[in-house]
Amino acid sequence: MKSIHLISNSCLITKISLLITLLFSNLTFGQITLVQEIGSAISPKSIVTNGQGIFAAQNMMYRHTITFYNAEGTLLKSLKDHVNLAEKGFSNYKNVTYLGAPVEACFTKDGKYLWVSNYAMYGPGFNKEGCDGCSGKNYDPSFLYKINSKSFEIESVVKVGSVPKFVAISPNGKLLMVSNWTSSDISIISLKTEKEIKRVHVGPRPRGVAIDNKNQMAYVAIMGSDKIAKINLLNFKVTYIEGVGKGPRHLILNAANTFLYVALNNINKLLKIDLRDGSRTYCSVNAGPRTMVMSANEDYLYVVNYYANTFQKVDTKTFTILETIKTKNHPIGITGNWKTSELWVACYAGVIQIFKDSLVTVSKDKEEMAIVENIPVLVVQEKPHLKNAIQALNIAKVSLPNTAVKIQEEKEKTPATSCLYHLISGSFQEKENALAFQKKLLDQGIDATIIKATKNQLNLVSIATYKSVAAANNGRGDYKKTHGKSSWIYHVPCK
Question: Which of 2, 71, 165, 253 is 20 to 30 Å from 178 by CA-CA measure?
């Protein structure tokens, strides 16, 4: 049982003790904190993961590199975008090295390969490069690269339209689609033959692509308009969802194909379209919404805002902003490592920032807790079962969305030392990396130990332990002031 006290945002209404069962306390809250930054001669334009511990950053076209990292942020490979097109089967090009210009990428479902679009190619035979302000069919074509995620080698290439940008693979793994910005069309590629099988005209400046899980419909954001194109993948006919708002850039479909989420770059909004009835819900965000990513449970949407130097967390049900987080200059790409609740944000200015979104779940099996920042504040959603429980206790007049909830645990029968609050400075999948980080802290005079997370078996580097959340948060603040480093709190479940 939990004792929950409801406290008004403006003043203390009354100290109401509300005893509810853990069944009714099916609530989550989260706060986001920066845990790591990766730099060193990069200008990441996009970032993706294969979900198996490999992350790929496509760097600004003039850098001519793709950088690969493991889940701890360690650089695995800086791959140059150099390729001999003749050796890859395109004999009409000279037997010399060509340069690409990486833009976006997508891993295959099994995580073995990364497909990368190149804004343009540089070398003999490429004389009329497309551009962001260009439009038409008379510009140079470009190529996609297929990269092995173990050897980090470019295994093959596919010729596509002019200035290819977003890359998407159908859920069944049979088709690859890329939006060709300058030529205003979509290249549809068979992954079996690795050849373009269809070129579909959609309109000016196509960008984001999302494919339904039936492999029958593809949605394309037409950024030079206020439309979203719908391509029937059975007959390649095109229809449109019109009047969505200017500058649709990125699209995400939920797993059930019932909601389509749209980042509207020109009007600083997100859009949620119910595909069952066509209804639309908008959410205003900071300036320049670019790339989005959805949490694995589909409860949250995260969007980077290029001009505001922020990213924001949005509740997909209420479609309201939960948190706004500052970033380095020009955040443009984002992906999630949901095994560790981490968000990787690519900032065009030259850094990848890794943030941890520690979601705390009050559950009857007392799963582990990870708490960040100050003592957590929970915004209660009007879930029917919870609202009814509150009304039953005659406190229906409390405004739930604007109510902060402070959770106080009843005294445990077991000693406090059996359920400590650890201050964590780093988390690692490989113990060797945790040991190296521990040694680094020890060399700095910080008393660091390694513990195992009970749920996901990560190696956590603990720098202090406390008997209460309040004490741990005070310690976290002191650590930040003294060492200038971020940390978060991990609660060892009571046994």
Answer: 71
Give the SS3 label for residue 449: strand
DSSP reduced 3-state for 178: strand
Determine the Cα–Cα distance for residues 314 and 325; give it in Å rounded to an integer: 12
Closest CA to 126 of 167, 157, 159: 159
297: which residues sit within 8 A by CB, 6+ positions away?
none
Share above pLDDT 90 across residues of the chain, in percent, rounded to a whole number: 64
For the segment 70-128, what is each residue's pLDDT rounded down to a tens digit? 999 999 999 999 999 999 999 999 999 999 999 999 999 999 999 999 999 999 999 99
Residues whose CB is less than 8 angstroms from the CB of residue 137 and which lie 6 or more positions away in sequence, other chains included:
162, 183
Q: What is the pTM of this model?
A: 0.71
| Phi, psi of 364, deg, nearest 5 | -70, -20
Q: What is the pLDDT of residues 444-486, one digit of tens each?
A: 888 888 988 766 577 888 998 888 878 888 888 888 778 877 7
pLDDT in the model for residue 419:
65
188 by Cβ neighbours in 10 Å (0-12 / 13-18 / 19+) ranks as buried
SS3 383: coil
For residue 236, CA distances in Å to 24, 150, 175, 241 come to 49, 35, 13, 16
Q: Tell me how far CA of residue 297 lies from CA of 106, 338, 339, in angstroms.
A: 21, 9, 12
Residues 6+ apart with CB under 8 A from 100: 64, 81, 82, 83, 116, 118, 119, 120, 121, 122, 142, 143, 145
Q: Residue type for 223, please?
A: M
Alpha carbon 125 to its chain's center: 38
List the single range of 197-201, 305-309, 445-449 with lowest mean pLDDT.
445-449
Greater pLDDT, 406 or 224: 224
Distances (CA, A) of 188 to 69, 196, 305, 386: 29, 6, 30, 48
Determine the Cα–Cα distance for residues 221 and 230; give it in Å rounded to an integer: 9
Q: In this structure, what are the phi and psi dihedrals at residue 469, rounded to the nearest 5 degrees? A: -65, -40
> In this structure, are residues 251 and 269 in contact, taking their beta carbons and an 8 Å threshold?
no
Please report which confidence band the pLDDT of residue 20 belongs to, taking 50, 70 and 90 as the band edges: very low
